[in-house]
Amino acid sequence: MPEDTPPRVLVVAAHPDDIDFGSGATVAFLVATGWQVSYCLVTDGDAGGFDASVARDRIPVIRRAEQTEAARVLGVEDLHWLRYPDGRVAVDLALRRDLSRVIRTVRPDRVICQNPQRNWASVYGSHPDHMAAGEATLCAVYPDARNPFAYPELAAEGLEAHAVPEVWVVGGPDPDVVLDLTDYFDLKVEALRAHVSQETDRDGRLVPMLREWMGGTAAAGGLAEGRYAEAYRRIDTR
């Protein structure tokens, strides 16, 4: 890579708002430190929302707009939408191919993805779409995207194979990367508030909840009281 080319990271998630909940402060930090950040959203979040009076065919449009605004808040403009149906994401060859296409397009130095393992302590930490998106992303990183003979249709599109050097997994067991992101807490909150259709800040509970989550992550990572962190399990994929 030329010395003047910024490092690139691709963040993959199942739904709009997943990135902002799991990695919003990390994204803000990476942008601020010169990384070029791209998003890949597997679904449009078409099964989300809370207002039954809103036509269901409007939800994908609304949620794409909300995620685009949330990304703008954090400094991200490159969004890739796969438009799989919300609630029905499965680890299949079609999804692996489509994720490989995005990896070969973005050519990232790092991929951030969701945890593919079930969390037995919390059903909320084990959304099937999240696990499927995480597993399919890892399959796309290795072996699919780096294998020049996998998915010949991608080569026909002019997309050369690309080997991702590392993956950071959100919400996985035994995190070994803990980032002090206290300075980016407010940007994470602002990004999440863009997801109006999800009532993200219902009853004003968003900030206290994030302080508890990120404060607990910081404490578990050995950071000082009053600091806020996001954590990852790093996988060397070279």
From TrEMBL:
Protein name from the UniProt record: PIG-L family deacetylase
Top-level taxon in the UniProt lineage: Bacteria
Species this chain originates from: Acidiferrimicrobium australe
Cited InterPro entries: GlcNAc_PI_deacetylase-related, LmbE-like_dom_sf
